[in-house]
Amino acid sequence: MKWLLLLLGLVVLSECMVKVPLRKVKPLRDRLREDGKLKEFLEKYNVDPATKYYPSMYAQVSNEPMTNYMDMQYCGTVSIGTPPQQFNVQFDTGSSNFWVPSVYCNSYACSNHNKFNPSSSSTFQSTGQSMSAGYGTGSMTGVFAYDTLQVGSLSISNQIFGVAYTEANFFYQMPFDGILGLAYPSLAADRATPVFDNMWSQGLLSQDLFSVYLSEQGDSGSVVTFGGYDTSYFSGTMNWIPLSSESYWQITVESVTMNGNVVACNGGCQAIVDTGTSLLAGTSSGIANIQSAIGAYQNSNGEVSVNCNSMGSLPDIVFTINGVQYPVPASAYINQNYCTTYLQSTPAGFWILGDVFMRGYYTVFDRAGNYVGLAPIA
What we know:
Elements: H1 2-13, H2 28-34, H3 38-45, H4 50-53, E1 62-65, E2 67-69, E3 73-80, E4 85-92, E5 98-101, E6 125-135, E7 138-151, E8 154-167, E9 178-181, H5 195-201, E10 209-213, E11 223-226, E12 239-242, E13 245-246, E14 249-253, E15 255-258, E16 261-264, E17 269-273, E18 280-282, H6 284-293, E19 297-298, E20 304-305, E21 317-321, E22 324-328, H7 330-333, E23 334-335, E24 340-341, E25 343-345, E26 351-353, H8 355-358, E27 361-366, E28 371-376
Parallel strand pairs: 4-9, 5-8, 17-26, 18-25
Antiparallel strand pairs: 1-11, 2-3, 3-4, 3-7, 5-9, 6-7, 7-8, 10-11, 10-27, 12-28, 13-14, 14-17, 15-16, 15-21, 18-26, 19-20, 21-22, 23-24, 27-28
């Protein structure tokens, strides 16, 4: 444009005035309309001038229903590819990668799960880069790829995910096909961008947070809400707890008490809030102290049990976090049918506030402020 203006200026100033006829160019929209390509162009490039000035108008809050599988896993349905292929995934705040089995997986664990077929998706793009992910109960290997992901009402374009080639046998028993990690990018293998980060960066969410409600066994209504939280799920005040590390959803616990006596975390300890862990896990000394306090013993099956007649009188396990007490009653940490505990020691050096804890508290995971919000279930 600058050279054209300069040229026109020279022409005007020239002693030999020459009139240069300008050809009228038809607007792009008119040309596309005449060629029958206007609709295709608008759909492909989403030509909407309002998105430049008001991107929040197109953001939303999306609810993803989850099914409670015997208080062990909470899973929901997502779709990958064009046309969409459906998968049941565990929404896991204790990891960051997203992966599903593929048709190339010959592992025993893949034999009874839905498998992604890359050749059936017109939007699939393989990177050829290998990936692996490990969990407390098993691992997987595969390659990274990109495709369109549908979660609830959200369509996430160019989402990187793992196409699994091998899976540990443990996953055969699981009700989910794959895992969708919701922790921070620093935990992701090869720093692959997590699903939630893409939801936010693509302007799909009204707020940079998500929330989780976990129902009791036999009850419906479990849900992960992207972009907001629902006050009808909790009572009282939402307490906001600053993260102590931005990798896991990690917070500081000031103490763990029973009947007013400190049984663990004397002077403070670290804990992560993890939807992907069904139990309440802690340091070996802390769990041993709790088991001693409730008179637990190892039964013939190797499980840790309590006297069934004493269950009604067992004390709460109380976590004090950011000055607020969060009691976990015996009805939550004891299997009422078998009188066994949902407690487990871990060598990790921190506590894991898994589903046993979270069923009692509506939880908000706030990426904008790096907080975990907790409030008692309504």
